[in-house]
Each structure stands twice: as structure tokens, then as C-alpha cells.
Amino acid sequence: MLSKSVVAVSVVLIMLYCNLFIEVVAIGVNWGSQASHPLPPATVVRLLQANGIRKVKLFEADTKILGALSRSGIQVMVGIPNDLLAPIAASVAVAERWVSQNVSAHVSSNGVDIRYVAVGNEPFLKAFNGTFEDITLPALQNIQSALIKAGLATQVKVTVPLNADVYQSASNLPSDGDFRLEIRDLMISIVKFLSDNQAPFTINIYPFISLYNDPHFPVEFAFFDGTGDPINDNGRVYDNVLDANYDTLVWSLQKNGFGNLSIVVGEVGWPTDGDKNANMQYARRYNQGFMNRQRAGRGTPMRPGPLDAYLFSLIDEDAKSIQPGNFERHWGMFYIDGRPKYQLSLLGNGNGLVPAKDVHHMGKKWCVLAPSASLEDPQLGPSVGYACDHADCTSLGYGSSCGGLDLAQNVSYAFNSYYQVSDQLESACKFPGGISMIVTRDPSFGSCQFKIMIKSDSSGGEASTKMCLTRSAAVLLLLLMCMYIVL
């Protein structure tokens, strides 16, 4: 019969092993804050913890969000927006001040587990016409210098989240990959800097965008079911675009002497609305497929093993720019009120997403087109335009969740969107000529939801800091068990 000490040690070793496994496959998420009525940060932190999410990527250093992440057990990548690159690139003092206020203060005083500083966000997009090409590397260097001065360079690494258009392959085979010619020298300089400082290359990969930009893109190749036509690259077989895209980067790094540089997938996911290919079914299929391969430990032909990745994104952002497309406001796994959109198992235990707790909605009231209003009323067009300019009407587009509404329902949807984003103020449902009215019966139709806004003063409280068993906790438990046995 096993002694108590052997049993105790075995239990702790099993716990440590399980903890190591969780850390290996831990998934991160992007937490954006461009919402008209964001959930309280403490509520979101509890949402992350309840769903076993151990890493989060932020696009800016929001003090309240960082405060809520204090001692939460969640690793953080904190971002620097592109509009701050110029002043940081021009002055080490500005970089030092930014690090002091947004990294050092939270790491030392608040116990925030900051692991990365993301310098800029996709600064070399072709759409930016080279605006940030001369300042990104200097900004990166100055932030690194500031981290060194603060004594944080070992704990906190710098990186630059880049779009996959920084590399290309003339033949579409990964092995022909290399950095885009017009920025190749710059990319090699950045890669060398990252390598010299043991920092990762961060890349955002979006199969949905490939499908959105090219109507002839093979849909099945975007997913992980193996149902698309595979690509054979000298014996390496690719059955999905993520693997092919990722390995195009691997080859680009390898050809330039940096084949061992670590890679972080900063954004990967699928939107649920705002385009004919942005829907719940595709989003669930893509994200669940990605999570299944992560748990199976599957990497790419060039880089076996699960990817270090952040799903995009956690919660919808109804105030985000729609310049790239209406889908930009619908990347979340959760609606803006923290309700899961679809069944998704992140932990592999068969359970779906856990909703946010203690979220309070406004009253069950909607603003709609008055029955007496004429669809030919000259006030109608300007009123709808005004409502959609100040609220979110992106679900009304072709192929979207509300794309099948008739004209009157379209008007009602626009009016209600403005009414809800205006906190259900009575004056927000008084469009000219008496063409609108407030109702208490839900006008939602089919897949089209007429939303009710959450209260902006929702009380989030303090985030729970309960964590899974860590190595240090396990060691402490082992010592206590040993003391018990001895006594």
C-alpha cells in the first residue's frame, strides 16, 4: 500500500502536470474597448476568468482596464496606438514616460502581469501609404530602451503586431515566401531587432479577409475541416489558409537568417455579421476548429505544436470604424452585453462559453416607425441617415442578419439603434413629423435582433482573483502535506 507521502507527492505532480498542460494550450483574446456602452472592466475580467482565458491583448493602455487585471492571473499584452508612434519615436524621454505610466506603475504597484508591449498596430498596411514606415522601428527601439532603464526588459518584451501583407509569395506556395519588396529592408531591420532582444514576431492572420476581398477564394480552404483542395509544397501539404499563411512567414524569416524567431499570432478569428460570409455558423466553425487543433497540439508543417495565439475578439465593438467593412463591429465571441453568440468550447470540456454576470439592461422599450408614418415622407431618409450616423446599423447590409427586413422594418431598426445608444432618452425617439414611437413589444424579426442597451452605470465590483493552481501554490501545498505527514 502506498504511503501518505507518496500519495501526496503524486497528487501534486498530477496537479503540476495539468497546470503545465493548461499553460501550453492557453488561448489569448483581444479585448477592444471601442464600444458605446462598454462593460465595466471588472465584469470583463470575471468573464475572462470564468472562461479559462489566461492571456489578453489590449490595443491601448487603459488605466481602468489594467487596474481590473491586477492580480487576476491573466497575462497582458498592452498596446501603443499608431498615433503615438511619432512622439515616442522622436523622444526617448516620451518613451520613458509612457513606460513609467503604463507599464512600471501597473507591474510594481498593481501586480498586473504585463508580458508584452505592442508598439503600433499593423503600421505597414498598404492603406496607410507608408505613414508609419519611418517611425515604427525608432519607436520600438525607444520603448525597448525605456524598458531596460525601468529594469523590466527581461519580463516585458516589445513587439509590433503586423498584418500578413508584409510578406508574400509569387507562387502562393509558402516556400516562396519573402517580405514585401518595398519594405523588405525595413522588415529585416525590425526582425533583427526583435531577435537581438529575444522578442517575438507578431502577425495577424485573417482567412475571412481573404474571402471578403476575393469572391473566388475557395471557401472550404478557410476552415480546418480538411474539405478544401490541399496545396502540396514540396511534400508539405496544406489543407487550410492559416497554415499556409503562417508558414509563408516562417519561410520569409528563414530565408533572411531568422528561422528560429518565435511567432505570436496576434489576431485570428471570424466575424458574425456585417457581410454575407460573416455569420454565426462560419464563426463557430472557424473558432471551434482553431481551438480543436490547439488542444490537439497541432501546429503547421514548418512549426509543429500549438500556436501562441490571441482570438479576435472577445466582445463586439459597436463604435469601431467600419472603413474596412461593416463586419468590423462584429468580431466578438460575445455580444456587447457579454452574452455568448454561439456554442464554443474553449476548454475542451464540452461546455460552452460562460456569459458575463451582473449585467443590467435598460427597460424593455424600443423605438420604431410609427404606423401612421408614410414611407414616402420626405423626413424619412434624413432621419434614418442621422440615426445610422450616430448609432450602429451595420446589421442591415446585404447578407447580414437584418438584411431581409422590409423598408418599414429597416427604418425601425435604425430608429431603435439610435434610441438605445442614446440611453433610451424619450427625446431620442422624436424624429421630425411624428414618424417614430416607443413600443414595449419586441419588434425583432427572425435572425434580426432589435437590441436593448445595457446600463452604462452597471456595477462591476472588484474582479475575483481566484486562479487555477500555479506551480508556487502547488509547491506550498506539497510542503504543507509533508509537514502534516511528519507531524
What brief labels describe this structure?
single chain, 487 residues, alpha/beta, TIM Barrel, Methane Monooxygenase Hydroxylase, Chain G, domain 1, 2 domains, two-stranded antiparallel sheet, disordered C terminus
Q: Superfamily at the CATH H level of the largest domain?
A: Glycosidases
Category by helix and strand content: alpha/beta
Provide a count of the helices: 13
The domain tally reads 2
* Integer-rounded radius of gyration: 25 Å
Number of strands: 15
Written as H for each helix and E for each strand, in order along the chain, the element string is HEHEHEHHEHEEEEHEHEEHEHEEHHEH
CATH first level of the largest domain = Alpha Beta
Write the CATH architecture name of the largest domain.
Alpha-Beta Barrel
User: Which spans of ≥5 residues are poorly predicted at pLDDT below 50?
Assistant: 1-24, 458-487
Q: What's the pLDDT, averaged over the residues?
A: 90
CATH third-tier fold name of the largest domain: TIM Barrel
**If strands are numbered along the chain, what order do they take across the biggest sheet?**
5-4-3-2-1-13-12-9-6
**Proportion in β-strands:** 5-15%
